[in-house]
Design a protein that fits this description.
The chain has about 200 residues and is mainly alpha-helical. It has one domain. The chain is about 80% helix and about 0% strand. α2 crosses α3 and α6 packs antiparallel against α7. The protein starts with a helix and ends with a helix.
């Protein structure tokens, strides 16, 4: 049994107390705020350094195409990189890729990245660097999985919660992988909303 799983099974009374910011209302408000910030940042980027962003997006798209969007998203969601997959969507928009395949490649890249994160948590959570990193997130992970179970992944997939990090915990807690995979399908509609906001922000600026 992994150390992370042992910790989950030894929750103290304090671990049962909801950490600040994880209430449903708080998460809903944060999601709206993050989407508003995303729109505002897109408009700001277009005004301030639009030409440079378009150059970078054009280079990325011409060099890597849709597979660049896919593997970039895989990387971000596997290691919980401090960037959102929405960053890849902006590259696609500024590089002139078609919306539908862009969303599909990004969504399935996110799903593959989530599965990679799951298996890292499942088979490698005892490795010291990974255990150390998960220790930093354990209070949130313990609380959410004890309160919501497998629905934690759905919540993380559509809110500002650290999606990749919680996929690591899903693996460490030995959540059924097929159920996990089915829940990550929500990443497909999840990619649509930020894509629309990014597209609108870039178009109207």
């Amino acid at each position: 049994m992994s150390d992370v799983l042992k910790e989950k099974n030894k929750l103290s009374e304090e671990d049962g107390v909801m950490p600040k910011g994880l209430e449903a209302k708080s998460l809903a408000i944060k999601t709206v705020i993050v989407l508003a910030i995303l729109l505002a940042l897109t408009i700001g980027l277009k005004f301030l350094i639009g030409d440079y962003v378009e150059m970078a997006g054009g280079w990325f798209v011409n060099t890597f195409g849709y597979w660049g969007i896919f593997f970039g998203t895989v990387f971000i969601d596997t290691i919980n990189f401090p960037l959102s997959p929405d960053f890849m969507l902006l590259f696609a928009i500024t590089g002139g890729l078609h919306p539908v395949p862009t969303i599909i490649f990004a969504a399935f890249g996110s799903m593959v990245g989530a599965s990679c994160a799951y298996w890292i948590g499942r088979v490698a959570s005892n490795i010291k660097p990974i255990a150390w990193w998960m220790k930093r997130k354990e209070k949130t992970g313990h609380f959410l999985f004890n309160k919501y179970g497998h629905w934690t992944i759905l919540i993380a997939a559509v809110t500002p919660l650290p999606f990749g990090a919680l996929c690591w915990f899903a693996g460490a807690y030995k959540m059924n992988w097929w159920l996990f995979y089915l829940i990550t399908l929500i990443r497909l509609p999840r990619m649509i909303v930020p894509f629309i906001l990014l597209y609108l922000g870039w178009s109207i600026a």
